[in-house]
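Re-running E3 ubiquitin-protein ligase to confirm reproducibility after the cluster update. Everything else is unchanged from the original entry.
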Amino acid sequence: MEENQWFLFGLDDILPTLKRVGDLPVYGSEAFTSFSEYNTSLKKIEKTQDIDVILAKFLGVNEPPIPLFSKDKFKLPFCNADLQHNTLLYRCLDCSLNFTACVCEECFRKGNHLEEGHHFTTQLTIQGATCDCGNPDLWKPSGFCCDHHAPTTESTPSELLEPEMRKKLHLFVRCLLNFMLNEVEILNMTKSNDNAEKQRMQNLKNRVSLVLAWIHGAVQQSYPLLHIIAEELTLQTLDNKSFDINKPVPLSYTTKEEETDILPQLATVIPILTYIRGTFDHPDLYQLCIRLFKIYLFDVVLENYSELSLKVEKFIFLCGLFYDSAPIYTMFSTDYSKNNLFRVVIAEYKQLISKKEMFDLNNATDRETFQAICDPHTEMAFLIRFFREQPINQYIYNNDDIMHEYFKVIDLIQDIVPLKRALIKPKEYEPEPLQVANAISSCFQNGFRILLKRFHRQKLPTIKYLKSILSLFKAPRSTKYLTCNDYKLISNNIFNAVDTVSLYSPITQMAGVYLLSSLQQDDNYSLDVVRSLIDNDKLLYMINQSLKPMMLLCQYGKWTKNLNINLETSCYMLSSMFIDLFMIQYSSILLGPNYYLNFMINSFTSNYKSNEYTSCWSDMLKTIIQIQQLRMNPKHTPENVRHYATQSLIANKKMEKEKFVELLKSILYSEKLLEDAILEISSGANQLNTELKLKPERVKYFDFYFPLYLDEPPMKNYHELIKDNDNSHPLPGVLGPLHHNLEAINDLYNESLLYRIVFFTLLPLVHPQYKLEETFSDFEKFNKFSSFQEMLQSQEELDKSVNNCLYLLCLAQQHYSEKQFNTLSGEEKSTLSTSIKLQLSEKDNNNTIKSSFISHILTYHKVGTTKENDGENNNNNNTTQSMSILDLLIDLLVMTNKNRYVDKKKLINHLINGLKDIDESLVNYINNRKPSDDIIKGNEDEKLRSDQLEEVHKRQKEIKEMMAQQQKQFLQLNEIDESESSGLHDNNTPICVTCRSSTDTDTDPLGAMGNVCGFHAHINSKRNSLKSFCPSLKDNEFGSYEFHTFGSFYPEELKESQILIIMQFSPSFNISCCGHHIHKSCLINLSGKEFQGFHCPLCDRPTNLILPPDNINKLKSWGNDCFIDVLVKSDMTFAMNAPDVSEPLTMKLLWKYALSNIETLELTSRRQKSYNRGTSHENKPYFVYNDAEFSKRLNTLTIIYHNIINLREIPDDPTELWSDDNQLYDPFIVATLSFYLNRSSDPKAHIKKAYENLIFCVQATIMDSYRRGNPLSPDVNDRDKLVKFFSSVTDQFIRKAYLFHHCISSRLQTGNQSESQLTLEQFSDISYLRTALDIPTWQTTQNEMMTREVSITFTNGISFSIPPKPAKFIPLPHSYVVSNSYSID
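Result of re-run:
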């Protein structure tokens, strides 16, 4: 070969290649005897150019070979542009044949789309794409650009070459592939840790990568070579005229045409299969734009899908193949191949989920492993989009086995990982929710919705799918049944942990998907047909599976020992709650209203056994209301989205549009519908950075019982919107229309049991001294049920239940007015009026009123009470009378008019006014009925209470004046000047408030009087700060204890590993002193005992502990019962008994009490402006304390510190807390605890280390948020915001560190402090504090910490770095410390 020929093509570095390759004989020459020399040369390649040279020698040409048959000579009919990440692509709605189709910018401009006025969109690629111009499967040929055309079927691309050239290229490619696949086999088989062997394997892997890179480049340059490579990879001829997936045509040149022919050996395994089985990184060969090749490749993949899909490293390849093969889905979703796409993938999902049997899913490690196995599998989420294609959904409809297997997949998830209420103590570790179960269930349900919509459009009967789903219904063997009121019911005692509840019930929810779609979309829907298919046991199973999660949501606040219950319920509410609500709604129709109410009563009372569940009655009524008000659609409608958005905007009244959309789009999915809804319901939606405000006319749509209001509805916001200060319970909001096929749910309003429930609930509130003289057999058990008796004693629960009953009556009245009364003729209204008048006059239940609502509220019940002789009545009169719901409403109206139960005023007035509109007899009865005697007496009692309250205020004022006079006399009696009342001598020496002596001995020590406030100070200083700045930490024991440490620890089971958990998450303490002191002997003389709670004789402030001075002997003299025992017994961290303070482990925990007060003082001494709201000084911050009060609290902190230090009678503990295991905790806690446990260590060193850890965590969070594009993270392009973010964290740390430093450097033997008095202004000066602590700025510290391993620089010039082994963190809010106190900003 002439070297100069290569230089002409710019390959001036060809000499090393020619030397490396060596002399090779031309194929067909006498010198060519085998392919072994070429295999030897291929083992020497170092770059793709080497393969070009080897090919040239094989062909016998003296120039680069690829240009001989490149696209310049053989035009590619399609575009092979590879659209990399962030590249502009175009989608033409007039030319694309599939939602995945797109073209590059060049093809779009040359395709006359603009000139012809086509509809198109543009977007930037996210994960890359391929231009589809020239691909008739995805793009209409009329939309091809001038450079591309549909491939012809007259000949294959390789037939354009000279026969000899074609033969040589086939043989060379076969040789090259054989070489590559042999290398791959060696790679797959070799496993060695020997360094020399590792290097050999790396060289081999590099050669395979070079071959693949050469193939990838060659197919982009040469159309004939592309076709030849495709044929050699598949070992068959890819000819449009003869191709048959089931009858492959043998590859050319596999037998000798002449005796002198030398052929490379054919692979025993299809090369493309060996290729995709390889463990190396490879280019995406599925993008070879030969349609027949894609068909063959897809068939091979489906044939081996079970093997390939379970390998995570192969899944990227499979995902790319699935996306790129969309045009041929129809072929593989029908009978074209024996490997049906949907059958294969469904079978794989079954195999995947069946692996659950290999794991204990209640074990954290096993659950994470199972989750990791399932996580990559998202094929079905992509494939269900193609259910819209008519040939595909038609094939599925005609092959019922596909859908039956489809349903079996999610049946495997049914009842997975059930929950049981923890009654005594939490588990040591509770796993996170099984997200993959939600993901797969939601995906399969969405696919079924798409199919049903298509089937119903085509008028196809779909009842067969309900039969298939019902065949999978099976109650667990552990299910227990009982009988009540002649009804068969299911044991449902989840409150007492007798029964479990699963939040994963996809097969029953799939029945809900079918029923919801059918009743709204299927013209042939029939309730009778559905009823005939669902027997009673299946119906009970169906409603029970849907109701139990709703009961769990109601009991949510009582499952506190299930540490992850908030995560479980949050996931459930966003994924499955609404379809379960619909299932209860539909089941109530099938059961009938009486059976349904009996089922609800039995379930919510936990079979009448939940004695501690006093809210069960109000929760049941609330759930019934939610079911009645539910308006569910198969997909989100504009009205449905407006309803969601209205409720959310009321709950989040101060939110900008972008954040509001971000909040809701994960629930509503359709961003377009959401945008339209926001414009319709709010003002400010078109203005940037403007808070959305609900339009006044939308307030009437407020739904107090909206299911997503888990804890409490946003009543404060609602009353602000309606400018109402009486906090009245809202009226029913405006609801969308109820579908006519669901009208039967309104039969509940005709059910007598509902009204007996209402009467049964209203009576104890309106007439607490009355009781029923007749038996309601429907729920006789409940009348004797202890929880109901407890509810009667709880005004709060009774109030809730009554409000719910009144609300239900409003719904019933509204339904009656709209659907019944307004449709009556004049004659029918006259008959009704006569019947009402007769009923009211005779109080006879055997009336002729046909209107069920009116009949029920006028139904009379016997009530009675025994009144003691009041001086006017006879002895022990038994008073019995008849009362109806209307009577109770009238009495309640009188009470609300007298300012009693004012929260019910709107509901009562609405009901009474509605009744007055029905008939004149009702108007007269309401206006003329005399209130019951007890109501009149109650109003008189209310007046008496009001007078008494006024008298109490008057007496309080007199007592305060008297106390002030007594204090003054006390000071004069003890010859104390008022200026001395601080409790200190002029030299700041403490003095006793009773004897006025400053003597302080070991036997009769002085002590500071203080008060401990535990419990309510919880989260005053929310110390989960490190979690606030951790980007990717998986939940472990650390996360499990957050906000759940009340009563979570048992002293006898306390472990060393729990020390930091308790420090960080347990309830906080706040200890304050009045500033006065008392001798031990004076206290005994004053109270008669050594120690008990009392009031300071000087200032009358409450005192429940004594803080001894800094002296161990004096501390022992006072004893534990005056100080440390008080703290430990007040600590809500521990269940049952307080820990023994003499135990070494408890001694370590004592640091918590000093730590809490450091954090509380730092928090409460900040500037804030809460009390200035609504004034002219609204934006002017101020200090809550003055300098004197701050000094007093600082002195208290110092006393606490030294007492805690002196109490610890254990040797220094050299345990290193600065370990990887503890990097999850607040660095300030770790630093101070380290010094407390080892006082020979340097506290400044600990503080400096904590400071560096904190700064690292903050920058790691910002970097992680930057990568993820988290909209709630600090704006990395805004330097001022970043600086503010860093400062907000580090400033608080420095203030706490200074308080710690102040405690260490102070001595209180005489009450004097070693440092000059610290003022609030100084404590707010971070520069001053940093200088005192010898701590540099965070910018300086950050620069010192730079590892220079990996660095990322933002546009604002701030640079952060990642250490070689980054810690595992998760992102948290900006605030390092937050307060739940209204007085702290």
